[in-house]
Amino acid sequence: MFCYQCQETAKGQGCQIKGVCGKEASTACLQDLLIWVTKGLSQVTQALRKEGKQVPKEINHLVTGNLFKTITNANFSDQDLLASIEKTIQVKEDLRRQVSKQEGLFGPALYQEKDKQALLEKGAQVGVLSTKDEDLRSLRELTIYGLKGLSAYTKHANVLLEENEEIDLFIQDALVATLEEKSIDDMVDLVLKTGHYGVQGMALLDQANTRAYGHPEMTEVSLEPRKNPGILISGHDLRDMEMLLEQSKDSGVDIYTHSEMLPANYYPAFKKYPHFVGNYGNAWWKQKEEFESFNGPILMTTNCIVPPKESYKDRLFTTGAAGFPGCKHIPGEIGEEKDFSEIIALAKTCPAPEKIEEGSLVGGFAHNQVFALADQVVDAVKSGAIKKFVVMAGCDGRQKGRSYYTDFAQALPKDTVILTAGCAKYRYNKLNLGDIQGIPRVLDAGQCNDSYSLVLIALKLAEIFGLDSVNDLPLVYNIAWYEQKAVIVLLALLSLGVQNIHLGPTLPAFISPNVLKVLVEKFHISPITSVQEDLDKLIY
Length: 540
Ligand code: FSO
Ligand code: SF4
What we know:
Elements: H1 25-50, H2 57-69, H3 78-96, H4 116-125, H5 134-158, H6 165-177, H7 184-213, E1 219-222, E2 230-234, H8 238-248, E3 254-257, H9 268-271, E4 276-279, H10 287-294, E5 298-300, H11 310-313, E6 316-319, E7 328-330, H12 341-348, E8 360-363, H13 367-372, H14 374-382, E9 388-391, H15 403-411, E10 416-420, E11 435-436, E12 439-440, E13 442-444, H16 451-464, E14 475-480, H17 484-495, E15 501-504, H18 513-523, E16 526-527, H19 531-538
Parallel strand pairs: 2-3, 2-5, 3-4, 5-6, 6-7, 9-10, 9-14, 10-13, 14-15, 15-16
Antiparallel strand pairs: 1-8, 11-12
Helix pairs in contact: 1-2, 1-3, 1-4, 1-6, 2-3, 2-5, 2-6, 5-6, 5-7, 5-17, 6-7, 7-17, 15-19
The structure holds iron/sulfur/oxygen hybrid cluster and iron/sulfur cluster.
Iron/sulfur/oxygen hybrid cluster (FSO) binds near residues 260, 395, 448, 483 and 485.
């Protein structure tokens, strides 16, 4: 195996024996093969479309679903990955028969192995290192990781029955492009185009979420459990949240969010459920302790799963793209009602969650809510009460060095406001950093995909202040990344021309020195340094 797609990759270079995330070598090879056969399927859909033939939307969903399954910490199940590989080859073969001009098809488009051992061996040959040139490899992987993040967001929109076929076409074309010999310049263009579609993907999801559940609004979220048994729901899938709330109402079981599901508390449609209590715990990587003390069942709707301890493994359920061997998976395709009754029944037999925190936190500052506060915000900027906005979106992770973000947030002068989204916020959202004339100093827009809100807010501020570019705003970026959803957020920002992004806690291992040079020249990206040095650079 060789995997370097996340920030915690071994030695900052690549996991080669087993993933730091807990991924086995066999799983890594199957994920590589799943990507490869999905490229093959995309070659076929591209060929069909060139011949003017229709490709059903279920095929688009298969492509995005496959990519989603290979995101860091999403699916650890060899069985599930094998089934996806077999299905993809089967579907691809069925479609290939409809292609009139077969001459252009090669490699994965023609692959139709069935034997498990042979599949594993193939997986070991078609991974990251099969591209020999370091820079081409870097740009291909950067594209693929962006596509993985984009697929996850697209999928979340699809489950709410929103589609944008243009995005699917791009994903498939871009997958095919990573099989072709392209120049470095063409690949840089492809990376930026991926970012452009990243913006479209986040916009689609924003539209899907707000149409279905209303606009997030300023909300005080309780951090304290009640006395009833509970179910903890984690990940990003709001449709799963809705189904769970609906099916568990009047059952005597309470519902709590964990990690990236916290923003569900901000949506009007979910507030009407009296058994939806609040949030329990912190970012994904603290789940080993927090799932233990929660006492009740946990539903993982997406990444980030940490291989569970035996003590709670039988209480851990997965659904959607998530999977873990030995944990029960709740099935349900797009448009289908999932059945969470087993989880609810199990909850009733469990003790109530143990209290691990006190008080509450405030969030819900997505674009609509911030626009509603625009006059207040603009006055505070004009009077000098707010001197700078600091975008600190992205992910949290286990690495010790991430305490930098807590220290940075704490050291920021009192006339700065943090704009955040994603699980990165857990490093500072409980610090009580106060407010500026009633505007909280930490404005949480929501999940990592709600970084889209931060973009809209920046554009709105630029418009109000009559500026030509968001780069002229008193707004700086200090972004933390961990996995591939953060990659698409980053590429989206770059495609919008955002300059001077500070990225940490370390730069991606998959960015080669030459590709980094391009990013620095074009966008002035830089790594974080020390809190003081970065404050000097960004704030003072
Ligand atoms: Fe975090 Fe995990 Fe949202 Fe990620 S929970 S790390 S970028 O999956 O998706 O912010
Ligand atoms: Fe290593 Fe990250 Fe890949 Fe897991 S996802 S194998 S930790 S690089």
